[in-house]
Design a protein that fits this description.
Elements (H helix, E strand, L loop, with lengths): L3 E5 L4 H11 L4 E6 L2 H14 L4 E6 L5 H13 L6 E4 L14 H22 L10 E5 L12 H20 L6 E7 L22 H12 L9 E4 L9
Parallel strand pairs: 1-2, 1-4, 2-3, 4-5, 5-6, 6-7
Bound molecules: 5-hydroxy-NICOTINAMIDE-ADENINE-DINUCLEOTIDE PHOSPHATE.
5-hydroxy-NICOTINAMIDE-ADENINE-DINUCLEOTIDE PHOSPHATE binds next to helix 1.
Length: 239
């Protein structure tokens, strides 16, 4: 039977590539993001490549409690058991800390922290009946380093790292294998940047992350990849 995975932030970038890769490799995918048209485009592309692929889409704002409640109800109503959850949605905002406003703070923390925290709380129970449940957090190499202009973003990624490591301990008794993937520079539209810009030519591609997520999800049952950090070779990573 096909395994079922829910992926957040699936309308573009890393989440989209991951949803497509998993759906084309035999997973049943629930793809979640705000942009309905982008999710429709993802489904069309997926079915064009394999008409038998299963890719459901759910358009909602993860920062809205009623949106998250709708997702919960839809999963409960359909009697869904999930085998994996990939919490990937995230936003970035980069400027000196002294220039950050409370609005900036709320915008970034609402997605990266509040939504990630409450989604984990909402979705982990749907993993309970899976024979080999897995939770994957797409965090960042800035869960382990800081850089000028990245105060709020680095804070949010350090905190996500703490959350996933805590969940690993709390959900061990339910056999949930919790992994974090910590990417370096990746060529997407992240933080309002331009995917495909010339200076990103040597960066990781979303497909590199997609392959990594599948490797983590398809590890033998007795294996958990606690952490996977990956960088483009051009990025000289230092903690
Ligand atoms: O970003 P991007 P990436 N409700 O902007 C969704 C981490 N990372 O793929 O709602 C629901 O292309 C948004 O969908 P939409 C990074 O921190 C990246 O690069 O339609 N969904 C879109 O699908 C993040 O955690 C780099 O706008 C919401 C997705 O999130 C993850 O990788 C380096 C939402 C963002 O797609 C994916 O980033 C690194 C909301 N309120 C870590 N807000 C990098 N790119 O260099 C956003 O170390 N989304």
């Amino acid at each position: 039977m096909a395994r079922r995975v829910l992926i957040t932030g699936a309308s573009r970038g890393i989440g989209r590539a991951t949803a497509l890769d998993l759906a084309l490799n035999g997973w049943e995918v629930w793809a979640v993001a705000r942009s309905g048209p982008d999710l429709e485009g993802l489904r069309r592309e997926c079915l064009a490549q394999n008409p038998n692929a299963i890719l459901d889409i759910e358009s909602l704002d993860l920062t809205a409690a009623d949106g998250r409640a709708r997702l919960r109800e839809r999963l409960s109503g359909a009697g869904v058991t999930l085998d994996a959850v990939v919490l990937n949605a995230g936003v970035g905002l980069f400027k000196p800390a002294v220039e950050m406003t409370e609005r900036d703070y709320d915008y970034l923390m609402d997605v990266n922290l509040r939504a990630t925290f409450f989604l984990a709380q909402d979705l982990l129970p749907f993993l309970r009946n899976s024979p080999c449940p897995r939770l994957v957090g797409i965090t960042s190499d800035v869960s382990r380093r800081t850089f000028a202009g990245g105060s709020l973003y680095c804070m949010s990624k350090y905190a996500q790292d703490a959350l996933f490591h805590t969940l690993r301990k709390e959900w061990r008794e339910h056999r949930v294998r919790v992994s974090v993937i910590l990417p370096g520079l990746t060529d997407t539209n992240f933080g309002d940047s331009q995917a495909g810009a010339p200076h990103k030519a040597e960066w990781l591609k979303p497909e590199d992350l997609a392959r990594t997520v599948r490797f983590v999800l398809e590890a033998p049952d007795h294996v958990v990849l606690d952490e996977v950090m990956l960088h483009p070779f051009c990025q000289d990573w230092q903690p």
